[in-house]
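Example 9 (inverse folding). The structure is encoded as follows.
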């Protein structure tokens, strides 16, 4: 997991290596300063203990020691400041690369991959989880070098001064280590659960904001507030449980530090007053107190660092899960980049959304569509209409059988080349923030204003665009909120037409358009795109009755294929749909 994450450090490797070096320099300087202090205190003590009164203070010892202490302090300051700055740069750059790598990998996902994650979960992983890992990384490259050096060097200096005290410090450090390890074991499961609750919180928030008009029209604000309250409450509950455990660490460090200082002062004063051979001198006693603080602060730094690591561990696992997800649509060796024509062949196709699924969505599909044909697809909800057409641009791969476009298995094409040849107007129409022209140019970035308008005219969108302020420069707002459902559908159709595809798929994409406009759009398609293969999924028989052939799907199987007249005569499902719609129209 760590190896996978560190691949995103890249150009910040140098900074990440320099930071520990600077932290080591800072730690060493902090160790040297108390040692230099012993010379000053020792000199003053020697003068004070001189009973003859002839001993004078060696000012040179004081000056040299003081100057060296100032130099060490300045070096420590510069090293610490430079290390903090570089650590911030390295961790921020690491987070930037991590988000970029996750997002780039997301773009390679097939629909099957995307089905494994909720949108809210992916947003949480790219934002909150990466921030947690960033903070842990910054702490690690700073403290995981500085703290051990402080600890080890202080222990060594303590052994030189008084070995017994070193044993006391070591015992205190072990006790703190046990407390820290206990906290880590207990807190990690809470953090993992907390991040799952974050996903739920983001899901509630996203759903509410996206559907705010529905919420208000049904006067469901109170219910949504309760849902939000529960989601935030769950995050709060597990966050508090985790933090309660972590709060044990700091008081434990302070308690041990006070106990150690009391022991040092008690033993040191007794050894000095008792005039024990080799007893501790006041200068050494002061140094030991400083080293004890550094030893325990080193342990405290490690505890803080482990705190961040514990917080980020669950986040790191979730990030790596996205980074290691591989597309279910592997690249072929051929990588064919040219699609000959718009012919489509389904050869004994079977399809399941999941390998664990017991029932296939599509079964025994064997259909051959000529280039330039207009094919209608009709069937009940859940009969597999959208699943069938999703196999054409290889949004999914069939579980069995073969799908061909232009006479070649879709798996052999370069994916971009295939999808640039196939245009889809999906059931759920999606527009983006920006102007109408910017949205239409998703079909062709290089399209001229004239080509953009021509596509809009064919989709019957130009008539309402001309009445908007700014016309093609009219800002649609986020998700196209400034236009109606029918207008949105027509803009999506125009965007698809601007691709000049060899295959165009309409997945119930004229459901919000009146029957007259629907008929005009279909007539324009026949007139302006005669060589384009057109597949129209519709609930209305009127939308497909002029098609060259109509496919009737029933529970994932082909129930019938033929013209409107042939199906009326031979297919009960089609006949029932037609009669129910005609009867409804008459009434």
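The amino acid assigned to each position is listed next.
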């Amino acid at each position: 997991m760590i190896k996978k994450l560190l691949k995103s450090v890249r150009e910040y490797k140098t900074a990440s290596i320099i930071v520990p070096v600077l932290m080591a320099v800072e730690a060493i300087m902090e160790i040297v300063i108390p040692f230099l202090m012993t010379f000053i205190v020792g000199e003053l003590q020697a003068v004070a203990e001189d009973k003859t009164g002839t001993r004078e203070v060696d000012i040179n010892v004081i000056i040299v020691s003081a100057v060296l202490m100032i130099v060490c302090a300045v070096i420590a300051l510069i090293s610490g400041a430079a290390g903090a700055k570089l650590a911030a740069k390295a961790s921020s750059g690491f987070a930037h690369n991590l988000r970029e790598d996750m997002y780039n990998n997301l773009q390679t996902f097939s629909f099957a991959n995307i089905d494994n994650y909720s949108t809210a979960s992916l947003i949480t992983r790219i934002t909150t989880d990466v921030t947690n890992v960033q903070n842990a990384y910054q702490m690690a490259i700073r403290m995981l070098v500085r703290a051990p050096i402080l600890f080890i060097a202080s222990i060594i200096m303590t052994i030189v001064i008084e070995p017994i005290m070193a044993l006391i410090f070591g015992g205190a450090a072990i006790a703190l280590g046990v407390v820290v390890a206990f906290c880590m074991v207990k807190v990690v499961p809470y953090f993992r659960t907390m991040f799952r609750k974050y996903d739920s919180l983001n899901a509630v928030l996203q759903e509410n904001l996206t559907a705010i008009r529905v919420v208000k029209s049904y006067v469901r604000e109170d219910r949504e507030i309760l849902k939000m309250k529960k989601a935030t409450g769950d995050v709060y509950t597990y966050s508090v449980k985790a933090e309660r455990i972590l709060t044990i660490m700091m008081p434990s460090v302070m308690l041990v530090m006070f106990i150690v200082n009391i022991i040092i002062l008690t033993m040191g004063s007794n050894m000095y007053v008792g005039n024990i051979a080799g007893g501790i001198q006041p200068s050494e006693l002061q140094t030991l107190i400083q080293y004890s603080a550094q030893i325990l602060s080193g342990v405290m730094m490690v505890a803080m660092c482990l705190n961040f690591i514990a917080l980020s561990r669950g986040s790191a696992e979730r990030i790596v899960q996205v980074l290691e997800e591989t597309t279910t649509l592997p690249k072929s060796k051929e990588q064919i980049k040219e699609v000959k024509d718009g012919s489509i062949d389904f050869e004994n196709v079977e399809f399941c959304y999941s390998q664990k699924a017991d029932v296939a969505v599509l079964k025994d599909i064997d259909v051959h569509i000529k280039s330039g044909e207009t094919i209608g697809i009709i069937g009940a909800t859940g009969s597999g209409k959208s699943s069938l057409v999703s196999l054409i641009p290889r949004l999914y791969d069939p579980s069995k059988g073969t799908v061909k476009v232009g006479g070649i298995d879709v798996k052999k094409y370069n994916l971009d080349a295939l999808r640039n040849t196939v245009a889809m107007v999906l059931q759920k129409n999606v527009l983006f923030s920006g102007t109408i022209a910017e949205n239409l140019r998703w079909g062709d970035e290089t399209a001229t204003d004239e080509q953009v308008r021509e596509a809009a005219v064919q989709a019957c969108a130009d008539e309402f665009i001309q009445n908007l302020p700014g016309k093609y420069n009219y800002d649609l707002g986020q998700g196209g909120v400034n236009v109606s459902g029918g207008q949105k559908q027509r803009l999506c159709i125009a965007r698809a037409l601007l691709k000049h595809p060899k295959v165009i798929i309409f997945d119930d994409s004229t459901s919000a358009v009146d029957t007259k406009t629907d008929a005009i759009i279909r007539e324009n398609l026949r007139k302006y795109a005669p060589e384009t293969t057109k597949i129209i999924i519709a609930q209305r028989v009127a939308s497909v009755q002029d098609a060259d052939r109509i496919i009737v799907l029933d529970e994932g199987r082909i129930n019938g294929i033929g013209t409107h007249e042939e199906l009326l005569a031979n297919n009960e499902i089609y006949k029932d749909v037609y009669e129910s719609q005609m009867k409804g129209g008459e009434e």
